[in-house]
Amino acid sequence: MRPARLGWGEQGQIAPPKTGFLDIAAGVANTVRLMAEPKTGELMETIASLCKRRGFIFQSSEIYGGLNGFWDYGPLGAELKRNIKDAWWRSMTLLRDGVVGLDASIIMHPRVWEASGHTSTFSDLMVDCLLTKKRFRADQIECLAGTAYFYTGAAEEGTGKESKDPFSVLIATGKHPGYAREVARQFYQQRGLKEPVLQGERSEPVQNTTRYNPENGSLLTEPRPFNLMLKTSVGPVESADNLSYLRPETAQAIFVQFKNVFEVARQKIPFGICQIGKAFRNEINPRNFTFRSREFEQMELEYFIRPDEAVEAICGRVAKPAGPGHPGEPQPDWGWQLWHQYWVEERLRFYESIGLPRASLVEYWQKPEELAHYARATVDVLYKFPFSKRGPNGELIGEELEGIAARGDFDLSQHQRFAGRPMTVFDEELKAAWPKLDPAKQAELSERFFQSRLKYLLNAEGPLVAANADARGRRDAEGPAKEPEAPVTKEVLAAKQAGEDAEALAKGYYIPHVIEPSAGVDRLALALICNAYCQDQAPDEKGNLETRVVMRFHPRIAPIKVAVFPLLKNKPELVQKAREVRGLLRPHMSVFYDEAGAIGRRYRRQDEAGTPFGVTIDFDTLGEKGPELKDTVTLRDRDTMKQERVKIDDLVPMLTARIR
Ligand code: GAP
Fold first, then answer.
1. Distance CA 298, CA 278 (A)
2. pTM of the model
3. How far apart, in whole angstroms, are the C-alpha atoms of residue 55 and residue 51?
4. How far is the CA of 300 from the centre of ligand 1 (A)?
5. At what angle do helices 75-89 and 336-353 cross, to 10 degrees?
6. In the predicted structure, residue 6 carries a pLDDT above the cut 70
7. Is the Cβ atom of 298 under 6 angstroms away from ligand 1?
8. What atom of ligand 1 comes closest to residue 403's alpha carbon?
9. What is the mean pLDDT of the chain?
10. Rounded to whole angstroms, how far apart are CA atoms 568 and 619?
């Protein structure tokens, strides 16, 4: 369980939006009221049932009993997801310079996953209940205390049959041991003993244990790793040679295609490649509705930056963060720390721009011991879901929506190593700057770069290419180097390689470093649904107050932007006019046309769907009350329920401004 750390943004420091990015201030102002209060756990069932009833989310393969960890998005859910992805794509690439898109295949060469480390280390520890065989993630087992009853085995009277399997059951201290014995008997019955007589019973109090199933007290298996990648076989023959994986993240395709994109996009560092696509993980325990699924979508950016040594060589310094908050317009002297801070703040702004209030988000900085060995810093953006755990003061701690990691040059280096293809870029400015540095600075930067490359080469898995058999490292190469040959160890090869990398830096070549903001579409959709869900009181047809369920989606991501209603469906002039208005709006936004039922009920249906605007065509529209109201309609706001009279001709510009 992670302790929540207050993010900078939560202290209220939101820098003004910059030109060319999503206009957050306008977006927030356009939203009448966004939910900021944390929701409680009980809400989840209500929300899940609304999702099904209104066609946001269905269980996959529902008519066959469903498939755990897989979900389908209905008409409203599909629109919501599309809007989320469009907003992300716009903010990450269309509205900024230097970020281009990629749409790569889901199945990639299996060596990709060796290079990335997924084959060897992408595992969770799992445990099985020895009684029910139910599987759990080891880190999700509740810590328990009580009295443990141990058995050395059991025998069957009369037959001589026995089981020597040890077993144990945890029960609450003070509870009758009969329960433990009953559970133990069931365990031995499963081992073929019809009437087991328990053997060697002893008991002892235990504290803080995660060795028992919290549901029934049965002992669990020892934790063992379980690789989360979903396997498949490519081609007509199923064999080990054809083994492949459904990608567990979209990021690797970006690294693998880095050189191709870099060349065709005619970019200079810093620049980014972003991608939206499906990812698959064979999660041990999918849970919390769509939060942890086995199939989901990711939105990932790999933003490639200069190593700090290159920045220093070019700019004479590496700027350091001046404090919390958005660091402003990117500058050439930014090193990885400022780029990382920049992307954390950009991502927080994005979430605000689509309706998640800053107070519902937590910025969690991973502790040094939680970081991957190559990562320099990782910030998780958490959302306070109703099912989130609570901290000591009862506050919701939040669950991860996105991770923003400073990953150094690990990923590209790994692919260079495994594919044997260079991932270096040539930086003209660096080449020009280096000879102008004084020799002491050159030596200092060179040494720092050498040490960082050496650290990577020694710590990461993968082949180290022996450039020549008597390579004995940079320091040997610099000396007379005519001693007897030493054995070529990993250390020697790594030093040699790091030395070559440092020499290449002086000539303007390096492997770019990367900042990776990686978000999940489905988790964000769920966060937006939870955030939007609201009940309030609204008058019915007769003016009596009734409970109204309303999804207060930000207009930018609302599945339907506007609903068009003729006041009465049996008046052909009203229906015809309403259809004309629908036709007018359709090219600009998603429109829902509804003529069935009383107008109040139609409003309620759209409130539940989260449609921010309703347009009603009535007799005034036809000019029956005078020419001044002819060709005007009522425009209803979902959140305030206020209605204003608007000219049909003004609808498109007015609504477009509110939904962008
Ligand atoms: N390339 C880095 C990466 O994949 P991650 O933290 O494992 O990092 C990134 O995943 C995001 O993908 C998460 O923050 C989350 O939003 C989403 N995600 C990961 N596993 C998921 C799952 N089982 N179900 C739904 N979304 C998931």
1. 6
2. 0.86
3. 6
4. 10
5. 140
6. no
7. yes
8. 14
9. 90
10. 10
The residue whose CA has the least distance to atom 17 of ligand 1 is: 520
**Which residues, at least 6 apart from 172, have a Cβ–Cβ distance to it below 8 Å?**
146, 147
- Segment 521-545 shows an average pLDDT of 92
- Listed residue (256, 357, 429) closest to 31, CA to CA: 357
What residue has token string 């989320």?
Answer: 84
**What are the Cα distances from residue 167, in Å, to 138, 199, 503?**
19, 10, 62
Nearest to 406 by CA among 327, 337, 326: 337
Ligand 1: residue whose CA is nearest its atom 21 = 292
- Token pair for residue 597? 């039922």
For the Cβ of 577 lying below 6 angstroms from any atom of ligand 1, the answer is no
CB contact set of 514 (below 8 Å; sequence gap of 6+):
302, 303, 304, 305, 406, 407, 408, 409, 411, 412
Q: How many angstroms does the Cα of residue 520 sit away from the middle of ligand 1?
A: 6
Minimum-distance ligand 1 atom for the alpha carbon of 281: 23
Q: Is 481 left (phi over 0), alpha (psi -120 to 50) or beta?
A: left
Note the pLDDT tens digit of each residue in 236-293. 888 888 999 999 999 999 999 999 999 998 889 999 999 999 999 999 989 899 999 9
Nearest CA, atom 14, ligand 1: 402
Record the tokens describing residue 482, joined without a space.
């005519």
**Which residue did the predictor score with more confidence, 293 or 394?**
293
Q: What is the pLDDT of residue 24?
A: 28
Q: Which tokens belong to 560?
A: 């339907």
* pLDDT band with cut points at 50, 70 and 90 for residue 34: very low
Cβ(476) to ligand 1 under 6 A? no
**Distance (Å) from CA 401 to ligand 1 centroid:** 8
Please give the number of the atom of ligand 1 that sits closest to the Cα of 292.
24
The pLDDT, as a whole number, for residue 21 is: 25
Which residue is associated with the tokens 């790999």?
Answer: 302
Statement: residue 466 has pLDDT above 60:
no
How many CB atoms are closer than 10 A to CB 654? 14
Interhelix angle 439-459/308-315, nearest 10 degrees = 170
Q: What is the pLDDT of residues 296-334, one digit of tens each?
A: 999 999 999 999 999 999 999 999 999 999 999 999 999
Q: Which atom of ligand 1 is nearest to the CA of 400?
A: 14
Task: Please work out whether the CB of residue 247 comes within 6 Å of at least one atom of ligand 1.
Answer: no
Q: What is the pLDDT of residues 182-226, one digit of tens each?
A: 999 999 999 999 999 999 999 999 999 999 999 999 999 999 999
Say if residue 95's pLDDT is above 80.
Answer: yes
Q: Which atom of ligand 1 is nearest to the CA of 283?
A: 23
Pocket test for ligand 1, best of 414, 523, 524, 526 (most atoms within 8 A of CB): 523
Q: What tokens appear for 226 in the block?
A: 């379980």
363-376 per-position pLDDT tens digit: 999 999 999 888 99
- Amino acid, single-letter form, for residue 74: G
Bridge partners, residue 404, by sequence: 379, 517
Would the CB of 293 count as within 6 Å of ligand 1? yes
DSSP string, 515-543: EEEEEEHHHHHHHHHHHHEEEEEEE-TTS
Per-residue pLDDT, averaged over 44-69, amounts to 96
Q: Which two tokens stand for residue 11?
A: 């202290």
Give residue 404 CA to ligand 1 midpoint distance, Å: 11
How many other C-beta atoms lie within 10 A of the C-beta of residue 157? 11
